[in-house]
Amino acid sequence: MTATATTALTTPRTSVRPLVKSGLIATVAASVATSVVAAVGHGAGISLDISGEAIPMFGSRS
What we know:
Elements (H helix, E strand, L loop, with lengths): L16 H27 L5 E2 L2 E2 L8
Antiparallel strand pairs: 1-2
């Protein structure tokens, strides 16, 4: 009687969830930082104009 040993090659399973979570956190952080810098600049009297038109900070006002 002979015994045969077999080994299964397994690849490490990587999850995408940590990458998505990190990406979402980075996106929120960048959005908040951009808004804070714009608000501080606006409060200091710095114009947020491009080609003579103001960029609305929170949506567009008609």
